[in-house]
Amino acid sequence: MFDTILIANRGEIACRVIDTCRRLGVRTVAVHSDVDAQARHVEMADVAVSLGGASPAESYLRGDAIIAAAQATGAQAIHPGYGFLSENPDFVDAVEAAGLVFIGPSASAIRAMGLKDAAKALMAEAGVPVVPGYQGSDQSPDLLAREAEAIGYPVLIKAVAGGGGKGMRLVEAPKGFADALASAQSEAKTAFGNAHVLIEKYITSPRHIEVQVFGDGETAVHLFERDCSLQRRHQKVIEEAPAPGMTPEMRDAMGHAAVRAAEAIGYKGAGTVEFIVDGSDGLRPDGFWFMEMNTRLQVEHPVTEAITGVDLVEWQLRVAAGEPLPCVQGDLTITGHSFEARLYAEDVPAGFLPATGRLAHLAFPKGARADTGVRTGDVISPHYDPMIAKVIVHGSSRAIALRKLRQALAETQVAGTVTNLAFLGALARHEGFSVGDVDTGLIGRDLVALTDVPDLAPAVTAQAVLALVGLDRAPQNLDGFALWAPVAQELAVAFGEDILGCRITTRGPGEIDVAVNGQIVAARYGANGWRFDGQPGAAVFVEDGVATVFGDLTTVLRRVDPLDVDAGAGASGDLIEAPMPGLVRQVFVSAGATVAKGDRLAILEAMKMEHSLLAARDGVVAEVMAQAGSQVEAGAVLIRLEEEEI
After folding, report:
1. N or C: which end of the chain has fewer CB within 10 A?
2. Distance between CA 261 and CA 277 in Å, rounded?
């Protein structure tokens, strides 16, 4: 076993690797950018080395600086985590040339699976079923359009060097192919430095099921499957293991195919073979096809660990250090069921836009595993993926595990930035998902219901109001004492753009009435704390005049100063603003241009994704205030439309 390893990553995966290293007594070295100098993974490691800069290119993608840090700190090996340099074969070559061990597969194995088109050809030779499609080197738009016609719509355009849904577009009909191709190629060029794409048949009732494999460079085993069908924009949201509806015959066929794929390239370490599965008529051994192989540890690896009892990071360290595979296939079994939900800082009602901000409060329930790289007080940076944590649960059955997931999400507390927590809760309660009826189109089909914001309950407002004025404490003897009438005070709170008038009347110790827009909520204090109209209160966090009420739906209400002027008064669709800090990738209009509602005016690149900025109304462009290549802050005005005539 190694004495010291360097972790060439950040965030939750760096912390995850450190956890196992601590248990094994292995010394760890963290690297960090300037903005991550106080990050959790830096705090946890034994030694930390600054890489400088802020963006990935200035820090976590600097392979030479990472290798130098490993040599300077006495590390014998480098663990890449996932993302950044984890699937860069040139980095693997450089690590080994420096006399260090790369904790992962060989450069040749990564190269073999690095380009989707070449990987599919290789898998077909190895007897692994592949999806019909075009993987040729001729990238002319006309040829790609003809190939798409020959394959038959709908088709997927996918970046050959892609991952994480970047450079991927679904095209339903020939009319949208040209625009989708240009968009996919642009995003692929930005994300991977390679604009080449492949075209493949889109399965109309697809499920995304992947198999965890582990090899020693010669032989491999599989650790069963994970279902990752709950996706948004081809990015996974909730994963589970094992896959619902899986049969022994299907599991055996997929497992053997995944092992063949790994052994065909002499795979060493942890990897995942991803399959697209036709779920239209149940799971059948002849109804799955190879999509790609991720030559690294996957984000969703904890669900496999939960059902197998295996620490995959420990296996990575042991095999990289020269030990044999810890077990043979017959030793591996499945126990129970596990779910993982990805908690992100993102504005769901605004179209799942990545969000930034300070985590004023962050807490996870004791009954769930939470893999996270942040703490209360940390800032979600615009430079990196906005993941806050992965919430993982395990139960003896799928039904029990799902109940635990719902409870864990309801008890997760985040304040200070918007998150997808309510969306995750809605997914966990979705009727189809609850019975295992899932496919990759579920979220898209039911997006309106899943993102619906329910009406604000007066009792929740009442609880927030008491917290904002400091009356959510245990009552005191003189509370409400007055000579002539009950003590009352007025308060206004904002819920989104709505202003609610509230009146707090203290009738006596532990007896408060809160009128919310005229509707009375009875707040009463008992042995178990405050109850509101008979229902127990939830946890509340207050900071700077903002109350966050936790529960099935996290609710944020802001105290309104009556002297404040509504910043949104008179707002219209005249201004197109940057919803987050980012790089203006393209601007499609100029002053004087006539635009229609929904027209794409510009593309903003932020948090490794491209976001289209659309016209909110019909109009004429009065002024373009940003150009391609400009770095802008959140709220910056990019384009102004002429005022509408009244």
Report:
1. C
2. 17
Q: Give yes or no: 296 in active site.
A: yes
Compute the average pLDDT of residues 368-394: 95
pLDDT of 548 above 90: yes
Nearest to 240 by CA among 122, 146, 334, 314: 334
Q: Output the pLDDT for position 129.
A: 92
Of 57-71, 191-205, 248-262, the least confident: 191-205
DSSP 302: H
Using pLDDT thresholds of 50, 70 and 90, give the confidence band for residue 115. Answer: confident
Task: Name, in order, each residue with C-beta under 8 angstroms of 402's C-beta and a sequence gap of 6 or more.
Answer: 339, 395, 428, 434
Among 296, 342, 406, 585, the one annotated catalytic: 296
Q: What's the whole-number mean pLDDT along residues 167-190?
A: 93
Do β-strands 387-395 and 575-577 pair in parallel, antiparallel, or remain unpaired? Answer: unpaired
- Is residue 204 predicted with pLDDT exceeding 90? no
**Residue whose entry in the numeric block shows the structure tokens 């030793």:** 331
Task: Identify whether the C-beta of residue 174 lies closer than 8 Å to the C-beta of residue 188.
Answer: no
The residue length of the chain stands at 646
Q: Write phi, then psi, for 55 (nearest 5 degrees).
A: -70, 160
Decide: helix, strand or coil at residue 428.
helix
Q: Which two tokens stand for residue 566?
A: 């509504």
Long-range contacts of residues 151-157, Cβ cutoff 8 Å, at least 24 apart: 151/199, 151/200, 151/201, 152/201, 153/202, 154/202, 154/204, 155/199, 155/200, 155/201, 155/202, 156/199, 156/200, 156/201, 156/202, 157/181, 157/184, 157/197, 157/198, 157/199
> Which amino acid belongs to residue 504?
I
